[in-house]
Amino acid sequence: MGERALIDRHRAVMPSWLALYYADPIEIVHGHGRRVTDSNGRTYLDFFAGILTNAIGYDVAEISDAVRKQLDTGILHTSTLYLIRSQVELAERIAELSGIPDAKVFLCNSGTEANETALMLATQWRRSNQVLAMRNSYHGRAFATVGITGNRGWSASSLSPVKVSYVHGGYRYRSPFSGLSDADYIKACTEDLREVIQTTTSGDVACLIAEPIQGVGGFCVPPDGLYGAFAEVLAEYGILFISDEVQTGWGRTGEHFWGIGAHGVVPDMMTFAKGLGNGLAIGGVVARGDVMDALGANSISTFGGNPVATVGARAVLDYVLDHDLQANAAKQGARLMAGLREIAGRHPIVGDLRGKGLMVGIELVEPGGTTPSVRLATAVLEETRARGLLVGKGGLHNNVIRLAPPMTVTEDEVDEALGALGGAIATAEGQ
Ligand code: PMP
Asked: How confident is the model over 120-125, as a mean pLDDT?
């Protein structure tokens, strides 16, 4: 049975809103390092890594061995009713790495679940259902997280357990403040935050949640220090600050272990998922202990912190730290950005090029202006695939190419990707 048949079966049985990439979608059947092979035997260099989730890459012996050793015990699951050594050890490491004083950790299975938990904690702690979120944000697919997702493309429902007010600042390129210097942009957004609190809330807001670099929103990078300035305003009101590190955690931004490090502030809570498991389902919240303990009822995630996921995640974290992948993300990210700057200089369809470390966004526009171009982004997606490179797509207007290879990516692989991207952008522009 060929590829076509699997697509037909997918369409028949999976929801229509579960999008597949490419006119002719790919079934990945094998992976090693930063390369994956599809069911037709074609190999691709992977610069999207399962949506930033295969943080280290494929077929990593240290991780496979750790998981295999756990499987050999016969225990895939025990539930959190019993002590799980790897869960406690992982939580200890994350608490320490967080920089949050007296931190406690709750482990669950996804970014959505992590953010739902953080919202539950903040709203309980503050006894308030009011939440501040950023325009163009993405935080998950459940009701509270869709309720704080500021992107029409991912908001199927307005039903929400929280009352949300949206703040300017995350997405600079199309912001009304885009023409300002870094300092003036921060000032304008901070004034907006204060005004939003004063005009759209009753003051006793529970929290502000923000992605240090917006992921689904198109790898939008605000000026360093923006969230530090926000935190000062939040502190005046006693509003908690949650950093959603689902995409930016574990050193991916190169400069810092957590994306929020660029803003000179330690948040009250951070949420994480994706890269921590290198493909194993795991997410969680790390929070001030007093905030974490704020729930007045039992709460449990049956699979949260299960032995397989936590043994694997511990191996991932060891690998990231032992190999200093944050330094590699900084180094290879700089190389990637330098190469892309040259390409962008030749092609006016690149409206904006932005990023940090191994999170790089290329926003495509119609020639001669800034009109978002889905057409060109789709063409670049297809043309990179034709050249053996997998990349992502996103952004408010779905016109941003997203690059986020595993953090183990090499210089040669960056150069190979640049070759494919240069060719793909040139071909798209000529179409
Ligand atoms: N927060 C951010 C910043 C994300 O990028 C995502 C996933 N794209 C989520 C939360 C939700 O994570 P999950 O899909 O694991 O529920």
From this structure: 98
- For residue 110, the CA-to-ligand 1 centroid distance in Å is 7
> 2-59+324-430 and 75-322: same fold?
no
Q: How far apart are CA 330 and CA 322, in angstroms?
A: 16
Answer for the pair 313, 92: CB distance below 8 angstroms, yes or no: no
Specify the length of the chain in residues: 431
Q: Mean of the pLDDT values across residues 231-240? A: 98
pLDDT value at residue 2 = 44
Q: What letter does residue 23 receive in the DSSP assignment?
A: S
Cβ(185) – ligand 1 distance below 6 Å: no
Separation of CA 141 and ligand 1 centre (Å) = 8
How far does CA 206 lie from the centroid of its chain? 23
Ligand 1 test: best mutation among 247, 278, 359, most atoms within 8 Å of CB? 247
Look at the domain 75-322 and name its fold.
Aspartate Aminotransferase; domain 2 (3.40.640)
pLDDT at 195: 98
Ordered by start, the domain boundaries in the chain are 2-59+324-430, 75-322
- Per-residue pLDDT tens digits for 215-225: 999 999 999 99
pLDDT digits (tens, 9 = 90+) for 248-290: 999 999 999 999 999 999 999 999 999 999 999 999 999 999 9
Cβ–ligand 1 contact at 252 (below 6 Å): no
Instruction: Please identify, by atom number, the ligand 1 atom nearest to the C-alpha of residue 274.
Output: 15
Cβ-contact 312, 280 below 8 angstroms: yes
Using DSSP's 3-state secondary structure scheme, residue 103 falls into strand
Atom in ligand 1 nearest the alpha carbon of residue 137: 3
Question: DSSP secondary-structure letter at 274?
Answer: G
**pLDDT of 431:** 87
pLDDT at residue 1 greater than cutoff 90: no
CATH superfamily, domain 2-59+324-430, is Aspartate Aminotransferase, domain 1 (3.90.1150.10)
